[in-house]
Each structure stands twice: as structure tokens, then as C-alpha cells.
Recover the amino acids of this structure.
């Protein structure tokens, strides 16, 4: 890493803290099962919108420290290639240009294409010298292991609102298995969203509509999410 010495500290879910392990030796499994290095605080007048989100991907709660972090979390939970999500996964320490530096990334994702370390920051702040410098050396560190590093800013509004809406239908146990199976067998390819519920007349229409939204969340059905979802939007089956 061009002389860059990096160590990582990880907080385990059982409370144990593993400190200052050489970055190159830290197992993926350890990072993928870590507890948040820091947790958010609640106080009157705070500027950040913090909270927890129940992720269908992990079947567990994941913390976020801002609305923008929540947006990234929604996208990760919706992504079928993502199998693990850890917030505030580790504390990274490095000596860069003769000075000690510290940084805690926002998310660690385990995906079918390998680990992804994510930092979330509003687009307007990316040009700030401290932010740009921190993200630059963090990228060097992450990519030195052949992993991916992502700086994530505001997503397209329509896509975010669609995913936020579909997330309301992410809990599989709320839907009858028989109904989901019938919808998967039904030929809904090229059917407008507003007409799809009528293809299962033996089920109450509100139940069918909700189940269709669940199958859009699970990618058993598809629709154009770059435009606001509406009754005229065309459904697509899994190719």
C-alpha cells in the first residue's frame, strides 16, 4: 500500500473488542458479523436523524445516523446481490502523510461480488478538503485487498421513493404462501400494475395488490423504478 500502515479495531456482538489488527489480516467473516463500532446518541436539538431499520436481508435491525444513510440502507436491503449489512463496521487507523488518521466507514456489505465498504456523504460536501482526503486514503486501503469502495450520495428521487414504498412490503411472513405461489405462476408479464390483482379473482383484491408489491421487493416481479410507480406501470416477470 505504498508504505501506508493500517490497523483496524472491531467490536464483536458479544461485547469483545478486537483492537489494532493489521488491516490485511482481518477476516471478512469478522467484519461481516461485527457490531457497530459506535452507536448514535439521542439529544435535544440534534441535527442528524438517527434510528434503526429492520433489514429483510439480515433479519435484524441496522442503525443509521442520517436520512441519507437510511436511503443507502434501503438500497442495500433491496439489492438481491447483498447478503450482509453492517453499520459502522470498524475503526480504521493509519498514518498518512506523517499524521495519524482515523475513520469509521458507514457500512460494510457482503455481496456476491465480494465485500463493499461504503461511505455516505451529501454531494455538496464531497469537495471539502478533509472529506476528499479521508475518502481518498480510505479507498486506497480498501482497494488494496481487492475489495470495492463506494462513496454514496443522493440517489434519484423517484427510485428512492419507489424503494421506500416497496420496503413496506418486505416482511415475507405477512403474506400467505399460497397467494405468493399463485402470483409466481400467473402470467403477469406486460400486465399493468393496476390490472394485475384481477388475475387472481379468488383472493381479496387488497391482499393481491400487497402481495404483488412484496414480489416487486423480492425481484420475483419487476417494474420500471426510475419513474413513480402507478397503475399504468407495466410488470415484468423474472427473465
Amino acid at each position: 500500500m505504498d508504505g501506508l500502515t493500517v490497523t483496524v479495531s472491531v467490536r464483536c456482538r458479544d461485547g469483545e473488542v478486537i483492537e489494532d489488527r493489521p488491516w490485511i489480516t482481518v477476516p471478512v467473516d469478522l467484519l461481516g458479523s461485527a457490531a457497530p463500532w459506535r452507536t448514535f446518541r439521542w439529544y435535544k436539538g440534534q441535527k442528524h436523524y438517527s434510528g434503526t431499520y429492520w433489514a429483510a436481508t439480515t433479519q435484524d435491525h441496522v442503525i443509521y445516523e442520517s436520512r441519507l444513510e437510511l436511503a443507502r440502507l434501503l438500497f442495500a436491503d433491496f439489492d438481491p446481490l447483498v447478503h450482509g449489512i453492517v453499520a459502522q463496521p470498524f475503526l480504521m487507523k493509519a498514518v498518512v502523510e506523517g499524521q495519524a488518521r482515523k475513520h469509521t466507514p458507514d457500512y460494510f456489505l457482503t455481496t456476491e461480488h465480494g465485500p463493499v465498504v461504503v461511505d455516505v456523504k451529501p454531494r455538496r460536501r464531497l469537495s471539502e478538503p478533509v472529506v476528499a482526503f479521508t475518502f481518498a486514503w480510505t479507498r486506497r486501503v480498501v482497494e488494496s485487498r481487492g475489495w470495492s469502495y463506494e462513496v454514496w450520495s443522493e440517489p434519484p428521487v423517484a427510485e428512492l421513493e419507489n424503494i421506500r414504498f416497496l420496503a413496506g412490503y418486505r416482511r415475507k411472513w405477512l403474506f400467505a404462501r399460497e397467494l405468493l405461489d399463485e402470483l409466481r405462476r400467473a402470467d403477469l408479464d406486460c400486465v399493468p400494475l393496476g390490472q394485475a390483482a384481477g388475475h387472481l379473482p379468488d383472493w381479496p383484491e387488497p391482499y393481491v395488490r400487497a402481495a404483488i408489491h412484496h414480489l416487486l421487493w423480492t425481484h420475483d416481479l419487476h417494474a420500471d423504478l426510475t419513474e413513480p410507480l402507478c397503475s399504468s406501470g407495466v410488470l415484468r416477470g423474472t427473465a
About this structure: The helical segments are 28-32, 67-78, 129-143, 157-167, 177-185, 193-196, 205-217. The chain has a mean pLDDT of 93. Residues 68 and 168 are 18 Å apart (CA to CA). Residues 129-143 form the longest helix (15 residues).
